[in-house]
Amino acid sequence: MEKKELIKGTSYMNKKNKNTEDVKDQVEEVLDATIEETETKTETENVDVETQLKNDLEKEKDKFLRLFAEFENYKKRTSRERIELFKTASQDVLQSMLPVIDDFDRAMKEIEKSDDKDLIKGVELIHNKLKETLKSKGLVEVEVNAGDSFNADDHEAITQIPAPSDELKGKIVDVIEKGYKLGDKVIRFPKVVTGQ
């Protein structure tokens, strides 16, 4: 009987060992699967975190570049505005001087009729000095002569008269008042009479 019990016990032990080994194998499989799943999850999370960080970095780089470009545009714009302000800062003073220049030009025409050479020479010197000073400040006379083509963008027509000849039809017959520019900006258009 002892033999039978021993065989039964051995058989039971074999079954128990087999069951233990099966359980052990199952636990190892579950653990392996869990470890693989965890590693995969970790890799996926690392990839997701890395991708997210790359995306965030790209967004920040884009924001920085846009901000930098905007700042550069601002600097250029303010620089242009400052230069423009310096060019036209004296515009009001120069515009108020234009009637004085016109009067001086008319006076020169009358003085030239005089016989006093020294008077003519003295006034011419003053006239030239005034014109050169204003020119150094950026004031330039707009060149217009009788016989030039009339352009409404560049001239101000005061009146139209019958053209003295066919060649002057639609052209400037006489210049009433000179025009002036300050830099590239016209501050007074020349006033002209046109032929029709």
TrEMBL record:
It is found in: Cytoplasm. Keywords: Chaperone, Cytoplasm, Stress response. Pfam families: GrpE. Residues 1-23 are annotated as: Disordered. Participates actively in the response to hyperosmotic and heat shock by preventing the aggregation of stress-denatured proteins, in association with DnaK and GrpE. It is the nucleotide exchange factor for DnaK and may function as a thermosensor. Unfolded proteins bind initially to DnaJ; upon interaction with the DnaJ-bound protein, DnaK hydrolyzes its bound ATP, resulting in the formation of a stable complex. GrpE releases ADP from DnaK; ATP binding to DnaK triggers the release of the substrate protein, thus completing the reaction cycle. PANTHER family: GRPE PROTEIN, GRPE PROTEIN HOMOLOG, MITOCHONDRIAL. HAMAP family: GrpE. Belongs to the GrpE family. Homodimer. This is Protein GrpE. It comes from Aquimarina addita.
